[in-house]
């Protein structure tokens, strides 16, 4: 199996190099971490990059890059806080709706990328999309200002 994987990496390396890419091949472990929170699957994947940093991403219930960390302890602490936040959020009567909205927003990002990569989109259409995103951001800010905060171990990173 390892010989087959090395052959595949060599083939990909050759093709991508011919396309103009710079390739760094590293041997590393990729870790999949899964939790089952009363029927909600929360999964992560992390690996060590070429700079000896850990790249962490939550992959379920929806994909969300968590960032790059200097140590495995930082990765574990980030996952621990994320799980605590999901356990807390599951107490909400609209938790399933929150997850559904996040999945739709992720899907919308992909849809938008396909739109401008595959079509000649007029400026007016792009301006309209940007305006709708601003409306959503304003709704989120208004909700933050009017809702009771329920998690305090860590401050929000983007609000």
Shape: globular
- Contiguous helical run count: 4
Order of helices and strands: HEEEEHHH
Spatial arrangement of strands, main beta sheet = 1-2-3-4
Which regions are unreliable across 5 or more consecutive residues at pLDDT < 50? none
Tell me the strand percentage band: 15-25%
Count the E strands: 4
Question: Mean pLDDT across all residues, rounded?
Answer: 93
How far is the N terminus from the C terminus?
46 Å
C-alpha-based Rg, rounded: 20 Å
Helix and strand composition category: alpha+beta
Fraction of residues in helix: 40-55%
Biggest sheet descriptor: 4 strands, antiparallel
Model description:
The protein is an alpha+beta fold and 159 residues long. It has 4 helices and 4 strands, in the order αββββααα. The protein has helices spanning 2-18, 72-89, 95-118, 123-146, and strands at residues 30-37, 40-48, 54-60, 64-69. The protein has a 4-stranded antiparallel beta sheet with strand order 1-2-3-4, with helices on one face. The longest helix is centred in the last third of the chain and has 24 residues, at 95-118. 4% of the residues are buried.
Task: Considering the chains and any ligands shown, give keywords for the structure.
single chain, 4 helices, 159 residues
């Amino acid at each position: 199996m390892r010989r087959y994987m090395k052959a595949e990496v060599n083939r990909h390396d050759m093709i991508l190099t011919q396309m103009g890419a710079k390739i760094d091949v590293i041997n590393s472990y990729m870790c999949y971490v899964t939790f089952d929170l009363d029927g909600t699957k929360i999964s992560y994947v992390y690996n060590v990059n070429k700079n000896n940093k850990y790249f962490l991403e939550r992959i379920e219930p929806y994909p969300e890059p968590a960032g790059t960390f200097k140590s495995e302890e930082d990765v574990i602490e980030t996952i621990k806080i994320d799980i605590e936040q999901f356990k807390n959020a599951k107490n909400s009567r609209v938790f399933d709706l929150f997850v559904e909205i996040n999945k739709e927003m992720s899907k919308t990002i992909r849809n938008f990328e396909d739109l401008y990569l595959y079509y000649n989109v007029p400026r007016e259409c792009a301006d309209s999309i940007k305006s709708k995103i601003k409306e959503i951001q304003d709704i989120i800010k208004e909700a933050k200002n009017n809702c009771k905060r329920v998690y305090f171990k860590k401050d929000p990173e983007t609000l």
